[in-house]
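Consider the following assembly input.
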Amino acid sequence: MSFSDANIWIIIFCMGVGTFVLRFSFLGLIGNRHMSLWLLRHLRYTAVAVMPALITPLVLWPDATGGQLDPARLAAASATLVIGLWTKNVILAILSGGVTLYTVLYFLPSAIA
Amino acid sequence: MKTSFWAGFRTGLPFLLVVGPFATLFGVVGTEAGLDIYQVMGFSVLVIAGAAQFTAIQLMQDHVPTLIVLASALAVNMRMVMYSASLTPHLGAAPVWKRALVSYFMVDQSYAAAHQYYEQNPELPLDSKLAFFFGVATAVAPFWYLFTYVGAAVGTSIPPEYALDFAVPITFLAIIAPGLRTIAHVAAAMVSIIVALLLNFLPYNLWLLVAAFAAMITGAQVELWMERQK
């Protein structure tokens, strides 16, 4: 981590304040006014808009393998996605991803850099 | 009011199956990334929003500028504005300090449980509605802190063979998958991935914010289009 301690605390503090402001927005500041449909329609997709972009490079070019496509991580990601879509169960999806990762790493140990 | 609190508490308990492991994982990942235990706990106590915390840690490891770390992590939390708006008709009449307290404890679980309870019991007095919300928060939040601490305490002793670098992608995939409820959600996720790949040459992980905005617009437009088809 190249961040100084002070910088890390600035990030923590600003994220805390920023997140609180988002949570307090309507409840504390704007009040019971009707929220525009336009805004609502966009906010609905924030989670599913940010996270896939964030993890795509982590799945395809993991730092741990020096950026090489890795069968274990690819298999684990696929298993997590399939089980998550199928069961809608977060814990089950994480577990199947973990089990797949370790199973493939066991048979293809060279995958670890 | 007491019954509402305990009803909330009981509703909150099953969430621990998700919150416990998720918090432990954050403690481990944060420590592995080089944060000290105060910083890891600072995240979980001051921010109390798992997905955003993981996003921040990931970007900090990529040596991204502070402002982009903040913008990206807060983008993940923009859904809270939606939660805030949807709780206001029920809790908007409470004194400001109670609304501030509700805001602090507004997480996916407490929001989802309270919103459902209020829809089923719209005539409930304000105090009971607040009690239910704080009941859920009381079941969830202490364990969020506690398990973050547990994860941070064991984190440094885990060797790299365990491939913990992949805990974040797996966790995020597991969160996203059940959220792909409609064509609009799937379209948003697809655009998010495609833009991230196409613009991966951009410095400072700026592709992340561009992909997020493109995906949000896609989701909204596809939703509109679907409504017009009906």
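The longest helix of chain B spans residues 126-155. Ask yourself how this observation constrains the way the partners meet.
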